[in-house]
Design brief:
268 residues, alpha+beta, Glucose Permease (Domain IIA), 8-stranded antiparallel β-sheet, 6 helices, rod-shaped
Length: 268
């Protein structure tokens, strides 16, 4: 059959914005018109508002077409039904995408399960916590009183009398250090000791540093272990430059090398 006649000779005109609709021809379903509005994130709110607006538009457009009343009513009824179906589908999709809130008893159960020990044979992951405090090895608080230790005379009887300390060889001017932290209780001349420094370390313990050529501290000063307190010399009853060192406990002299060894500093 050849394409002749008025229908074949006439080009069908389509809407530019809606190519699926034709002017003067069959009107496409209103569901297809509203589907883009209800897609993606446009859900219940778009469906409800869009339904109201589209319903009013359908009635107005149908009235303006000049169709018979029976056809116009059928067109409006079909459009309204399509809109209602799309709104229902949009609401159902939104409910499916929103996960239900966990029940209170379910939360408590999950907490209890997390606190319960893992069954035997199952590996568990433990979080290791580190302390910002670094633990250090114990330090020897007693320190040598000279840079170079050479013993020239020991504690005990000497020349018919008791030698209450230990003598260390030192050249005049060599630095003399505090063996332990404490307060200077004597810094000056003391007959046979010459220039003498005495440090009170507390708990009844004192140290003596004698025969110094120069004293570098004053009474009442606080010194740390290893702090320079004097320069070695040959003052007082002395037969050569050296440092005479004594330890007194509760006012009585004790053997220095044994005491220092028990305190962690072995100079022997």
């Amino acid at each position: 059959m050849s394409d002749t006649g008025p229908v074949a000779a006439r080009t069908i005109k389509r809407h530019a914005a809606r190519p699926h609709r034709t002017r003067g021809q069959h009107r496409a379903s209103w569901a297809a018109e509203l589907a883009p509005l209800l897609a993606g994130t446009q859900r219940r709110y778009t469906a409800v508002v869009g339904s109201a607006v589209a319903g009013a538009s359908v009635v107005a457009m149908a009235a303006g077409t000049g169709l018979p009343s029976e056809e116009r009513d059928a067109e409006v009824s079909r459009a309204v039904a399509d809109i209602a179906a799309l709104a229902a589908e949009s609401g159902a999709a939104e409910e499916q995408e929103t996960p239900p809130a966990p029940a209170a008893n379910a939360t408590a159960s999950a907490t209890a399960d997390a606190a319960a020990p893992a069954p035997a044979g199952e590996e568990t992951t433990r979080v290791e916590r580190t302390s910002p405090v670094t633990v250090q090895d114990a330090q020897i608080t007693w320190t040598p009183m000279l840079d170079q230790i050479t013993i020239t005379s020991l504690f005990g009887q000497r020349w018919g009398r008791n030698h209450n300390g230990v003598d260390f060889d030192a050249a005049t001017g060599d630095p003399v250090y505090a063996a332990y932290p404490g307060t200077i209780v004597h810094a000056g001349w003391e007959t046979g000791f010459g220039n003498l420094v005495v440090i009170d370390h507390g708990d009844g313990v004192e140290t003596y540093y004698a025969h110094n050529s120069e004293i570098l501290v004053g009474e009442g000063d606080w010194v740390d272990a290893g702090g320079r307190i004097a320069n070695a010399g040959n003052t007082g009853r002395s037969f050569g430059s050296h440092v005479h060192f004594e330890i007194h406990v509760d006012g009585r002299p004790v053997e220095p090398l044994g005491y220092l060894a028990e305190a962690g500093l072995d100079l022997r």
